[in-house]
Specification:
Blueprint (H helix, E strand, L loop, with lengths): L23 E2 L18 E4 L5 E6 L2 H4 L2 E6 L7 E2 L15 E7 L5 E6 L2 H4 L2 E8 L2 E8 L10 E7 L5 E6 L2 H4 L2 E8 L2 E2 L31 E4 L5 E6 L2 H4 L2 E6 L8 E2 L15 E7 L5 E6 L2 H4 L2 E8 L2 E4 L18 E4 L5 E6 L15 E8 L2 E4 L19 E4 L5 E6 L2 H4 L2 E6 L8 E4 L4 E2 L7 E3 L1 E3 L5 E6 L8 E4 L3 E3 L7 E9 L2 E4 L3 E4 L6 E7 L6 E2 L4 E7 L8 E2 L13 E2 L2 E5 L2 E2 L1 E5 L3 E5 L7 E9 L2 E2 L3 E5 L5 E2 L10 E3 L23 E7 L17 E2 L5 E4 L2 E3 L1 E8 L2 E7 L7 E9 L2 E2 L5 E4 L2
Parallel strand pairs: 30-38, 40-50
Antiparallel strand pairs: 1-28, 2-3, 3-4, 4-5, 6-7, 7-8, 8-9, 10-11, 11-12, 12-13, 14-15, 15-16, 16-17, 18-19, 19-20, 20-21, 22-23, 23-24, 24-25, 26-27, 27-28, 29-32, 31-35, 33-34, 33-36, 36-37, 36-38, 39-41, 41-47, 42-46, 43-44, 44-45, 44-48, 46-47, 48-49, 48-50, 51-53, 52-53, 53-58, 54-57, ...
Length: 755
């Protein structure tokens, strides 16, 4: 987090006692041991994700050499002073280390910025906690052509501590920029990431497109947890109006690219200095931008959110209670991991008409609920300040959960400085069920999933029971807000007991109803061959019980068609194949005939029948691209066929006066099912279907190959084949087979021939 001492002319505060709202001070203020001179401790602050490690920068320690202190919840209020970072040889060690500080989520990696190192070039120092000792790992700075850059005025770290961002607001005649460094296998790279299409040029990783004048880009910086989204503040842009820039990359090693135009909050008054501070949520999709100069230095902050790569302002600017000139609200800002809690510092003062005003400084907390930001409680200050001018709020930081806040006050006690830690008390409450487990209806043999939602102080424990609420004789599922029942064949009741250390609550009873009349599928087969393999756009027979209402047996009729679309429901009976609606031709209590959807299916598919809103248990059927078969007359074995003139083909004795045999050399018309998809494909659901197969099947009649003149779809699911009877076909019943794409029709089908 960036943190900078800013001289406040006429920054004054009333003498009212500090107000503690939701945050309360945790212990005494933090003042680092071993300081030399007036270090300005609290110029910068940072806190680990869990709030147990705090880092405080003091850039004026030891006559400007600077220092940083690390505190943990166990090492007391004096902290551990980090060893002085190595300055550039030949330069006076007035690096101003502690101008900015950042810490990794686990608190084991710390970066300390020193913007005055090497005559104003600036740098940052990387420290790691090794065997309980803080050890310097590297000193890093970005290469520049000439001039001072003030690198280290701001720094930020990714959550894992492997990506470091350093801002340099004076680079290129105060235009500013920022550099990114990466750590691989414990070692920091010596050179910063290059901008896109740079090719080794000595320029910052990030330079904003659209800067105006002395923008001071990089005066504040922030990184998302994964280190792939960066936010840079430029409070001097456009003559002090200020702005911020977003940069993103696809991952480590990928180029950084500016995302959209610069961000400027609406409603600003005067030279707002937007970008005085910046912060990002863990996922990088919520950005907080402080503008301490807004409205005659009263200050404000703006929130932006990202959706599909586009940034938009969320609500109006936030100004806090007692907004007044010279409060400098927004000089520092921090966000919780989820982006829903913002801590904002204002090191200035409220004007008093009765005595000299004092710049104690203040901190505000804003929270987001359903996209709306509101201030939580009143502004607050830390107790124990040694002087009235502390400038509390010059720097702020917040833990991931938003329950620990750190506030820096660099001029406390005659510029010794200090930091204050505040925590939100955990409000304990017994569990409360917010969403009861819902009753449901399933088919016999299915399982049901029950869910409960509960609030209350964590941790919450869950114990599911079978039976009515309060009956603990049959425990079933443990320690989950979700419970999946076993496969049920009868109606069963369940409930859940939710407990925490502060109480317990019983849920209502959830009844899982298993209707007795649920449809039951016993077999799924090809309607022409009775084979157990199905295919796309194929007539299929589903056998079972309770498939339709008792006595309801019928086929589709013209009134069932709407806009030439085949019906998917007949009298409340429907069917699906892999969740897609099939077309229902015939229903009865024991059989339903359907046409499968014309979608490519292969392998195991789920077939389900629903009657009156009650589904059957899904049944697994085997599917392949084609399941070729012939329609037969009645129960068979004679193929369904016609002569070219439309009269029926078959033995003369089959239907005397109606059927006649085929003649050798005659072109006959045969009908089949399950030959798969056509080219072009049919329109799903259309009652008009006509298209050829992409290739011709191979026909054999009486052991001799037969020429095929046409093969294609002529009606929904009905394939027609115009075949020439071989001259060698003998009189009598001849076996008939067709092979398509390596798959053969059913055996035992006959075609009668007579010379």
């Amino acid at each position: 987090m960036p943190g900078r001492y800013v001289s406040m002319l006429a920054a004054l505060i009333c003498t009212a006692a500090p107000v503690q709202a939701q945050f309360s001070q945790a212990g005494n203020k933090l003042v680092g041991a071993g300081s030399v001179g007036a270090p300005l401790q609290g110029t910068s602050v940072a806190v680990s994700a869990d709030g147990s490690t705090v880092v405080v920068g003091g850039p004026a320690d030891s006559n400007g050499a600077g220092a940083a202190w690390v505190y943990t919840r166990t090492n007391g209020a004096q902290g551990v002073k980090l060893p002085l970072g190595t300055p550039i040889a030949g330069f006076t060690p007035v690096a101003g280390q502690g101008s900015s500080v950042a810490v990794s989520a686990d608190g084991t990696t710390v970066v300390v910025g020193g913007m005055n190192d090497n005559g104003g070039t600036g740098a940052m120092w990387m420290y790691s906690l090794i065997n309980g000792v803080w050890t310097q790992q590297a000193k890093l700075w970005g290469t520049v052509l000439a001039g001072i850059s003030h690198q280290g005025i701001s720094v930020s770290l990714s959550a894992d501590g492997n990506t470091a961002l350093i801002g340099g607001d004076l680079y290129n005649n105060e235009t500013g920029g920022a550099w990114v460094f990466s750590r691989f296998n414990g070692a920091w790279s010596k050179f910063s990431d290059e901008p896109q299409n740079c090719g080794g040029c000595p320029v910052p990783t990030m330079q904003g497109i659209g800067t105006l004048g002395t923008a001071h880009l990089g005066a504040s910086v922030a990184l998302s947890a994964d280190g792939n989204t960066a936010l840079l503040g430029a409070p001097g842009d456009n003559s002090g109006a200020g702005a911020a820039w977003i940069f993103t990359r696809a991952g480590v090693g990928s180029p950084w690219i500016q995302q959209g135009n610069k961000l400027t909050g609406s409603g600003a008054i005067g030279n707002a200095a937007q970008g005085s501070s910046v912060a990002l949520s863990t996922d990088g999709s919520t950005a907080l931008i402080g503008g301490s100069g807004d409205n005659n230095n009263a200050g404000a902050v703006w929130v932006f959110t990202r959706s599909n790569g586009q940034w938009t302002q969320q609500g109006g600017k936030l100004v806090g209670t007692d907004s007044a000139p010279s409060r400098y609200l927004g000089q520092s800002a921090a966000l919780s991991a989820d982006g829903n809690t913002a801590v904002v510092g204002g090191p200035g003062a409220l004007v008093s008409t009765f005595s000299r005003p004092h710049a104690i400084g203040s901190t505000w907390v804003f929270m987001r609920n359903n996209g709306v930001w509101t201030q939580q409680g009143l502004e607050f200050q830390g107790s124990g300040a040694a002087t009235n001018d502390a400038l509390q709020g010059s720097a702020v930081a917040i833990s991931s959960d938003g329950r620990t806040a750190v506030v820096g006050g660099p001029v406390d006690n005659n510029n010794t400085g200090a930091a204050w830690v505040f925590t939100q008390p955990v409000v304990t409450s017994p569990p409360v069920i917010t969403t009861q487990p819902a009753s449901t209806t399933i088919a016999s043999g299915q399982t049901a999933t029950l869910n409960v939602a509960a609030g209350g102080t964590a941790p919450l424990a869950y114990q599911w029971y079978q039976g009515a609420s309060g009956n603990i004789s049959t425990p079933v599922g443990t320690n989950s807000s979700t419970y999946m029942t076993p496969a049920l064949t009868s109606t069963t009741s369940y409930w859940v007991l939710v407990t925490n250390p502060y109480g317990s609550v019983n849920s209502s009873t959830a009844v899982v109803t298993v209707p007795v009349s649920a449809p039951v599928i016993t077999q799924v087969s090809n309607a022409a061959s009775s084979g157990l393999t199905i295919a796309p756009n194929t007539w299929v027979a589903i056998q079972g019980t309770n498939l339709s209402t008792a006595g309801d047996t019928r086929s589709w009729q013209s009134s069932d068609f709407v806009n030439n679309q085949m019906p998917t429901v007949l009298d409340g009976v429907s069917a699906t194949v892999n969740g897609k609606s099939a077309y229902v031709y015939y229903i009865s209590p024991t059989q339903v005939n359907i046409l499968t959807p014309p979608d490519a299916i292969q392998g195991q598919v789920q077939v389900q029948v629903t009657k009156g809103g009650i589904p059957s248990a899904p049944v697994t059927a085997q599917a392949q691209p084609a399941s070729p078969s012939f329609f037969v007359i009645g129960a068979g074995p004679y193929v369904a066929a016609e002569h070219a003139n439309g009269t029926y083909l078959g033995p003369a004795s089959l239907y005397p006066g109606v059927t006649t045999p085929a003649k050798p050399g005659e072109t006959v018309v045969l009908f089949g099912n399950g030959f798969g998809l056509t080219v072009p494909p049919v329109v799903a659901g259309s009652s008009v279907q006509s298209a050829p197969l992409p290739s011709l099947p191979v026909f054999v009649i009486g052991g001799s190959p037969a020429a095929v003149q046409f093969a294609g779809l002529v009606a929904p699911g009905e394939f027609q084949f115009n075949v020439v009877v071989p001259l060698s076909a003998p009189d009598g019943d001849n076996t008939l087979t067709a092979v398509y794409n390596g798959l053969s029709t059913q055996t035992g089908v006959l075609l009668t021939v007579a010379h």
